[in-house]
From TrEMBL:
BP term (GO), one: response to antibiotic
Organism (species): Aminivibrio pyruvatiphilus
PANTHER family in UniProt: MULTIDRUG EXPORT PROTEIN MEPA, SPORULATION PROTEIN YKVU
UniProt GO cellular component terms: plasma membrane
Transmembrane segment boundaries: 36-57, 69-92, 113-136, 156-173, 185-206, 212-235, 270-294, 300-323, 344-365, 377-397, 418-436
InterPro entries: MATE_fam, MATE_MepA-like, MATE_MepA_subfamily, MdtK-like
Predominant localisation class: membrane
Composition bias, Basic and acidic residues: 1-15
Keywords: Antibiotic resistance, Cell membrane, Membrane, Transmembrane, Transmembrane helix, Transport
Membrane topology label: Multi-pass membrane protein
Gene Ontology molecular function: antiporter activity; xenobiotic transmembrane transporter activity
Name of the molecule in the record: Multidrug export protein MepA
Pfam families reported for this sequence: MatE
Family membership: Belongs to the multi antimicrobial extrusion (MATE) (TC 2.A.66.1) family. MepA subfamily.
Length: 469
């Protein structure tokens, strides 16, 4: 039986006779859409920015060890993207399903999805850790490490792999909190870990003389602290969704459904990893300076993209809740609001980044003119395409949130797969290093064009659903 507002089915009573489930349901389905998206997005943006800052921190501190060490960060970034692919696949797959279930007020089913998702994330993270450590050198070479970069990449990657099960599980817990509209809880866990990482980086790298391994150990420790904080919200009863061994599903269908819902995230993250590998391999032809330059540009773009992604992840539970509740006018309003805000922000960031490109690259490596030259050109090319990026992100997250997994998967394949990979295989051979620099911007432009007809169809479908209610 579906619980109605005021019903106490499995709920925890709040003052005034309303339990947590119903209170959150009313907030998600009645609060003005712009204010709701903004309230969920701000904690998520803070979390994403702190994550981006500590990624930049790793790059900054490691760059003081030399160009080869800086290139190793870009190599291991591909490995971290693989771990993220696992975490986001299960996390976003569980989260998108949980939002719709909570919108339909099916809390017990949401609990089952959450507990099963946590088990799956820990298991897949453990497999990655075991196989990665067994084949470490071969894996680093596969990810694009040159012989001079390999020793640094090996030292950095080993500790990241030890932490893989915790990292994958953290992504899962983070997405569950956001799915139920508790973005502030997720923010506390992620920002605490990120700030701790920034403090530990210089201590371990320089204070303890551990070099690049110190940066990896700092990241591993901060990820464990972040996981403990995220888990504590569930153990202390601060959430709607509950985790417990009794809730773990024994039915394969539960896990298949999670994976189906998370398939767009898997494609997005896995292809990002493959694209980074392809980019590193293509850049390595032009030396360590090119690998280091593209690594720095990638981290800078992710810092800007974190705001766009943070708003999008604040938007996803709003869409899931209201689509599950049949409130299609609110879904449309949330879509339009999010697209406008992210479009404006990315345009402003693009103008600033284009103007200050050489200065931004020199913040990381001042004494290598070749790194600055290659990096500034690549960053300016990225800035030209930045205003086009939000439509692809918002469309992808929308279709994933409403359960149209195959459409979302196709969009996930587009940016880094269908468009980027063929271009990175062709353009460097034709244009040299310029081909490496412009591949991602061209892929972003083609992704934007592919999203236009899907946007028109989605808005028409919402109008038709609203008219038939």
């Amino acid at each position: 039986m579906t619980a109605k507002p005021g019903h106490k089915e499995g709920g925890r009573e709040e003052p005034g006779g309303m339990n947590k489930e119903n209170s959150q349901y009313l907030r998600m389905t009645q609060m003005p859409v712009g204010s709701l998206v903004f309230s969920l997005a701000v904690p998520t943006i803070i979390s994403m920015l702190v994550t981006a800052v500590y990624n930049l921190g790793d790059t900054y501190f490691v760059s003081k060890l030399g160009t080869s060490a800086s290139g190793a960060v870009g190599i291991v970034f591909s490995l971290m993207a693989i771990i993220q692919a696992v975490g986001f696949t299960i996390g976003m797959g569980s989260g998108a399903q949980i939002s719709r279930l909570l919108g339909a007020q099916k809390t017990d089913e949401a609990n089952r999805v959450a507990a099963s998702g946590l088990l799956a994330a820990a298991a897949f993270g453990t497999l990655l850790s075991v196989f990665g450590l067994l084949f470490l050198d071969g894996l680093m070479r596969l990810l694009g490490a040159t012989e001079t970069i390999l020793p640094y990449a090996r030292d950095y990657a080993a500790y990241i792999l030890y932490a893989a099960p915790v990292m994958a599980s953290s992504f899962l817990l983070n997405n569950i909190l956001r799915a139920e509209g508790k973005a502030r809880f997720a923010m506390v866990g992620l920002t605490t870990g990120g700030l701790l990482n920034l403090l530990l980086d210089p201590l371990f790298i320089f204070g303890f003389g551990m070099g690049i391994a110190g940066a990896a150990i700092a990241t591993a420790i901060s990820q464990c602290v972040s996981f403990c904080i995220l888990l504590s919200w569930f153990l202390r009863g601060k959430t709607i969704v509950r985790l417990g061994a009794a809730g773990i599903s024994k039915r394969p269908g539960t896990y298949l459904h999670i994976l189906k819902n998370g398939l767009p995230s898997f494609c997005r993250q896995a292809l990002a990893s493959i694209a980074t590998i392809a980019l590193n391999v293509s850049a390595a032809v032009y030396g360590d300076a090119a690998v280091a330059a593209m690594s720095i540009v990638g981290r800078l773009f992710m810092f800007v993209f974190a705001v766009n992604l943070g708003i999008g992840q604040g938007y996803m539970p709003v869409v899931g809740y209201n689509y599950g509740a049949g409130l299609y006018d609110r879904v449309k309003a949330a879509f339009c609001f999010t697209l406008k805000v992210t479009g404006v922000l990315m345009t402003v960031a693009a103008l600033a980044g284009f103007t200050a490109a050489p200065v931004l690259i020199r913040l990381f490596i001042r004494n290598d003119a070749e790194v600055v030259r290659i990096g500034a050109g690549a960053l300016r090319a990225m800035c030209l395409a930045m205003p086009l990026v939000p439509l692809g992100v918002v469309c992808n997250m929308t279709f994933q949130s409403i359960g149209r997994s195959w459409t979302a998967t196709a969009l996930s394949l587009a940016r880094q797969g269908i468009f980027f990979l063929p271009l990175i295989l062709v353009l460097p051979g034709a244009l040299g290093i310029t081909g490496v620099q412009i591949t991602q911007p061209l892929a972003d432009g083609l992704t934007f064009l592919s999203c236009l007809p899907l946007t028109v169809w989605f808005l028409r479908d919402l109008r038709a659903r609203q008219d038939t209610r």
